[in-house]
Structures are given as C-alpha cells and as structure tokens.
Amino acid sequence: MNICRELAIVAGLVITMSATGFSQQKAIVPKNWQLLSYGTDSLYGVDAEKAYSELLKGKKGKTVIVAVIDSGIDTTHEDLRDILWRNPKEIPGNHIDDDGNGYVDDVFGWNFLGAKDGGTVKEDSDEATREYYRFRKQYGNPDSALQKDSKEYVYWTRLKDRIQKPSTQAKTDYKMMLKVQENLLKCEGILADYLKTNDFTVEQLDTLRSADQDVMLARSFALRLLHSTNEEGTTYQALKNDLAEYVKELKRKAEYTGGEPEDKRATIVGDNLNDINDRFYGNSDVQGQFAFHGTHVAGIIGAIRGNGLGIDGIADNVRIMAVKVVPEGDERDKDVALGIRYAVDNGAQIINMSFGKGFSPQKQWVDEAIRYAQEKGVLLVHAAGNDGANNDEVENYPKDTFNDGTEADNMITVGASGNGRTGSKIAGFSNFGKKEVDLFAPGVQIYSTVPGGNKYGSASGTSMAAPVVAGVAALVLSYNPDLSARQLKQILEKSATPLPDGETVNKPGAKDEQVSFSELSKSGGVVNVYEALKLAAKTKGENAKQNRARMKAMSKD
C-alpha cells in the first residue's frame, strides 16, 4: 500500500473522537450515489439510473471513445479491460509501428512519461519550482535584473510567493494528516488496551462489540482508515507506519526552503523538452507503477455496467483510451499538448483531464492543442482544482482562455459537489469561479476502480467530478451522435440543475462564509444527465451532414 496515493481517500476521515463524530459516520450513503437522484434517493446524483430506466430503456447508443489523459490505467482490471480502446491498426508486441503514427505498439494508448527501455517517470517536481530556478539561471538576480513594470517581473513575484513561502496547500495537508495521525494513535491506545494487542486487522475489528462508547468510536475510525487502503489483510501497524512516512513527506513539503530539484524526466525520457516537434518519445506501457488516479477516473466514466462486479460507470457504451502524462508532481506542458493531439488523432471524441497547475510556461503549446481539438470537434473536460480557490482570481491550467483573449468553445471546467446527505453541499476543497468554472458534479467519496485487477476504493476531488461530467457527455453523445462538441458543452451547461433543497452553501475554502450556489459557476448548477438527454433530443445536431457523408463513404468501401 502507498499511503501517498490514498490522501484523497483518507482526507475526509478527520473526525473528532466524540459521540457526535460517531453518529455522523453512521449516515448511510450508497457507493453509487453519484448515479442516483434527489427525488427518489435524497442524493445530489446526476440522475443516471433514472435516465436509463425512463429515457434509454430498449435503446442502443453508438460507441464513444473517451481519452483519459492522466497517470495511467490498469489494463487488467476486471471492470475495465473489456471497455478499453484498442488501436485497430496496431499488432500487440511486435515492436513495429504498424499504423505508422510514430508510436510503436500503442495498443491501449501511449505513455509520454516512458523511457525507451520500458521505464517510466514516477516523480517530478512542481512547475513553480522548475520556473523559479529557470528564472534564477536566466537572470541571475531577477529582482534587480527585471523591470518592475514588466510582465516578467510580475511572473517572478508570483513564483517567489509560491516557492519562498511554504504553500498554503502543503501546510493545510500537513495539518490535516497530523490530525488523522493523532486520532489514529488515540485509537491505538484505546483498542490496544481493550484487545490486549497493539496490532489488529479489519477482520478482528469487524467482530468487536462493546458497550464502551470510546472503544466503538476507536473501532469505527480505525476501520474506516483500514478500509480506505483497498488492500486485503492490511494491519493497523502497517497502516500506521505508512501514514507516518506520508506525514513526514508532507512535513518536508510544508517546510520546504529551497534547492533546485533533480530533473529526472530529462534523464529517463530523453526528449528535448524545449522542442514541441520532438514528438515521438515515450513507450506503450500505459499502466506503470502509479496508475491509481487514472484507473479511478476511468471507472467513473465507463466501468462495465450490469456485470455484477464492483461498480457501474456512467456511460454504457464507451471505449477508454489511456494517455499517460501525469507523474507524482506537475505534468509538463509538452506532454499535455502532445497527449491531447495523440487522443484527437486516434479518434477520441471526449478527453478527460483531471489534473492542473498554477503555472504553464509553454501555454501556447497547450493552447494550440486545445484549438486543434476544437477544430476536430473534440470535447475537453477539465478539473477545476482542489485548493478551495476562486479560479477567477487564481490561475489553473489548462484553461479555455487563449493568450489572445479568445475562448475555446469545446472545454468544460468542473467543480466538486457533495452528496447532499452528509457533509457540505459543495466540497470544501473545490475551486470555483463564476467565469472560469462551468458547472459542478459529484466529487466526494466517489467509489471506483483502482489498480490490482479486481480492487475498488473511494476518492474525493475535482479529479473525480470531471470524469462524472465526461461520462455524462459520453452518454449524451452516444444517443445523440450528431451533436458537436460545442453543442454538447452548451447542453450540459443549460441542463445543469440548481440544488434542490436551497441555494445557500458554504463557500469553498472559507470558514463559516455562506454564498449562493449560483455564484460559484457559470451555469450555477450540477450536471444532470436526465435533463441533458431531454434537451439533446430537442437539439438538431450540427454534425448530421458530415456523419451522413462519412457513413455513405464507408458503405462504398
């Protein structure tokens, strides 16, 4: 188990050791809550099950290809392997570029973090740190070398603020996980005294019953953390040790004072990072050793429905293309740009991008790739970020505004909403913005596929909300294939629904401040596939003519 990858899972488990905390844990929220409805289930789901039973019953949609640009996907997973995109022109394992696209053996997609010898970049630095040291090398002392009224100086000031002061997020994460660690140690003291051992498993705790409320509180907290690891047989001591290592790493980040990071990517991948035309690098291993994030995202979109296994995805007729560009650290602009182009060139109709960063030194490359996707009619879905920040005031890249001030009409930015039954209506970590965020979607404790072949787990983040929207978009497009990307975006925004039980919500990132939900995004709503399908059915698709022409050409062949 790697506790680092489980931060999103355990972050929501910081509870106080009190009777109130225990009663809150007992509220029942179904694992598939994001698919459900407020009307029948009292949950802020997207009405997917309602749509299938009332609007889509007996109908068959067309297959939609959705690219997941992320950390990689477990291609062996029982709930994913049959819905993975497979390059029809590529022969697996023959070490030949059969389709001539420049990527050898790209059967499931491509790994832009890969080395020729099969290795992969696992960790990379953050973009702010990379830019900070680039400026210092270029200008020596930027404070004296740069004109105070120049764009470069403003940029340098932002970099200094980010690097020379510990980031708010790092300090917040450290403080939060210290609380988790503190409560876990309290649990250990209570449980060790009761069980007469300082180590225990899920099985032992499952059978524990006591009239002592403190014992049952400790049992409940420890069980939640143990279950969150998604590892069978994990013991308390193993969990405690991994958590201690993770807290140590968070402390290092929170107390970071400087030092240029090692550029591992240049050594492993070997491409020219400053040349966007140096495109044919990487390898075909789209899973690698750290595919938790991408695997979880893929399952939310399209895990096989109705097979009796772990979960049902939102869309019932998709093929998931794996494009690996995200390490543990910030993704590179070049990889993102080429990842988008790869997905578009290989037939993706929707691209999910559950990543983001505050600096984008080669933004023009990503802009050009987004324009390329726009020209080809591909919808991009992007996570708004998890800093509880206003994206109208802070940068979060990629974004739909180009350097020339124009905006892409094929990109949706997504914030994270809660389940409506427990916790906040809107995720406290979610970024927002009346101009820069388009809509919200379920993003708290979303249960989905995780690496391991047959494993599942919950995670939270706008990274989970974005694939909910990508899945909704795929489902709508599947049954309305003549819609353009522009129309698809408009339909999802126009059909987004207000909160059913009141507009007032806690403002993300703020303590005890309430705002109107409609002020947190352009649409002022949560994505709703039932309403989107109804609106799509009334919309004449802009791609009808070209789709007929394509079908006619195919029939002649």
TrEMBL record:
Keywords: Hydrolase, Protease, Serine protease
Source organism superkingdom: Bacteria
Classification via PROSITE patterns: SUBTILASE (PS51892), SUBTILASE_ASP (PS00136), SUBTILASE_HIS (PS00137), SUBTILASE_SER (PS00138)
Keyword Ubl conjugation: no
Active-site residues, as the UniProt record annotates them: 70, 293, 463
Peptidase S8/S53 domain: residues covered: 61-504
InterPro entries with a match to the protein in the record: Peptidase_S8/S53_dom, Peptidase_S8/S53_dom_sf, Peptidase_S8/S53_subtilisin, Peptidase_S8_Asp-AS, Peptidase_S8_His-AS, Peptidase_S8_Ser-AS, Peptidase_S8_subtilisin-rel
Family of the protein in this entry: Belongs to the peptidase S8 family.
A Pfam family it matches: Peptidase_S8
UniProt xrefs under Gene3D superfamilies: Peptidase S8/S53 domain (3.40.50.200)
Name of the protein: S8 family serine peptidase
Native organism taxonomy: Bacteria, Pseudomonadati, Bacteroidota, Chitinophagia, Chitinophagales
Signal sequence coordinates: none
